[in-house]
Design goal:
alpha/beta, about 35% helix, five-stranded antiparallel sheet
Length: about 450
């Protein structure tokens, strides 16, 4: 069986590439050994956001009186129905993706695929007892959860994000090892559900490489809600009693009924057979150029496997770049304008450079920022917290970064992303007309700050 292109992995990068390739006239085959949609659709983005939306509605119900609304029968939730709805959403979307891929004419093989080698200029792939020969190969095998070698971890029934999404009973208390995006989103959900949450983070602040000012504001908000943060803390041991940390030279036990390990993800490089084609690795993933091309002239890699930007929307864009290169369409990957979002309540989002990056690189910059309360729509809809719009500008007044705290940051960050991508100056952006009243008007107010 011969094909123009084979795609290994059916996550966001894989299924997008299959659709684009088939639509572009390439005879396409895509392999997925688990479930189409990958981690994002089945064990990550979508199920997590579905749970978080239920939690947000619960938060709104709790604060309804501030908006002049009474809830006569009291406020409660049904965890079983919340989980059932999450499962229905995942099932609906995975079915939709599968149907869309096949509607374009791509052949879907729901078997594990392994690279066997190369012969007569064609790459050979083994799957389900069959041999597939292809001209081009796109590897999108994603990433796996990092489980650090912590003393005692193998002896307790801990969660990763996968098990946390499958839970049917809420623990009374939860210790989350890792204060990154995934850790904070789970902290948000379980805190809304009434669970006592502790977040343990090795670094001085949560959310890794995201803007530190807005990250600290978000942490402060969740501290007010009862979440315990242990920063600058190293986990030394876990036990049925909880997590033992080392902080400021002292050993402290963080008691918890359940432990969630959220220490990041690593590129899934094993078992796919990249060594058979001598594909070069770099950092913590596959080495690629600006076209997503590996060291092999007919092999591309997209998504988490590159170890560069482990985000679903990054993966989708990378696959588009790769397919365009194969089809002869000029395109290059630009990571400078990829937004990052934390779907807590309130949401936090950022795009472009952070102050921390610029300071470390010795690059001159200046800041324009305003509280979200300068947006009338934001004030009308938010009685329970404030937020921040922070623009980072270079010496030519071009927008090179933006960081937002406040709902709906996830929906309006793209406006700043376009500004970063097209190198708008403040003067150019000031001429944009924003509808009134919208939260997005905060940009316009900030331009004149």
């Amino acid at each position: 069986m011969k094909y123009d292109i084979a795609i290994i992995g059916g996550g966001p990068a894989g299924y997008t590439a299959a659709e684009r390739a088939a639509a572009g006239g390439l005879k396409t085959v895509i392999f997925e050994k688990k479930a189409i949609g990958g981690v994002c659709l089945n064990e990550g983005c979508i199920p997590t956001k579905t749970l978080l939306y239920s939690a947000k509605l619960l938060d709104h119900a709790k604060s309804a009186a501030k908006y002049g609304i009474s809830v006569p029968d009291g406020i409660s939730f049904n965890l079983e129905k919340i989980i059932d709805r999450k499962d229905k959403v995942v099932k609906k979307l995975t079915g939709g993706v599968k149907m869309t891929v096949q509607s374009y004419g791509a052949e879907l093989i729901e078997k594990e695929a392994v690279i066997a080698g190369e012969s007569d200029g064609l790459i050979q792939i083994l799957a389900g007892g069959g041999i597939y020969e292809v001209t081009y190969l796109l590897v999108c095998t994603g990433s796996d959860t990092v489980v650090p070698p912590i003393k005692g971890l193998s002896e307790v029934d801990y969660w990763t994000s996968k098990e946390a999404l499958e839970m049917t009973v809420l623990p009374k208390s939860l210790a989350i090892i890792g204060g990154g995006v995934i850790g904070m989103e789970f902290a948000s959900f379980f805190n809304s559900m009434g669970v006592k949450v502790s977040v343990i983070e090795m670094m001085p602040e949560i959310l890794g490489a995201m803007d530190k000012e807005t990250s600290a504001m978000l942490r402060t908000e969740y501290q007010k809600r009862g979440v315990d943060f242990q920063l600058n803390s190293k986990v030394t041991e876990v036990s049925p009693s909880g997590v033992t940390i080392e902080k400021a030279g002292k050993s402290v036990l963080i008691e918890a009924e359940k432990i969630l390990v959220s220490a990041g993800r690593k590129a899934n490089l094993s078992q796919v057979g990249l060594d058979k084609l001598n594909v070069e690795l770099a950092r913590n993933g596959v080495k690629v150029d600006e076209h997503m091309l590996t060291s092999h002239p007919h092999v591309y890699a997209c998504g988490d496997i590159t170890g560069h930007s482990m985000l679903a929307h990054t993966a989708i864009r990378e696959s588009e770049v790769a397919l365009n290169h194969i089809l002869g369409v000029e395109d290059r990957m630009n990571y400078n304008c990829v937004p990052g979002v934390v779907y807590t309540n309130p949401e936090l989002a950022g795009v472009g450079k952070t102050e921390e990056e610029l300071k470390a690189a010795g690059i001159s910059y200046h800041i324009q920022k305003l509280p979200m309360a300068y947006s009338g729509r934001f004030v009308a809809e938010n009685e329970t917290g404030n937020g921040l719009c922070k623009l980072i500008l270079d010496d030519e007044d071009r927008i090179i970064g933006c960081h937002l705290l406040g709902n709906p940051a996830s929906e309006i960050i793209i406006v700043a992303g376009l500004a970063v991508q097209h190198r708008y100056t403040v003067e150019e952006f000031q001429k944009t007309v924003f509808p009134h009243p919208t939260v997005g008007e905060i940009y316009h107010e900030t331009f004149f700050a």
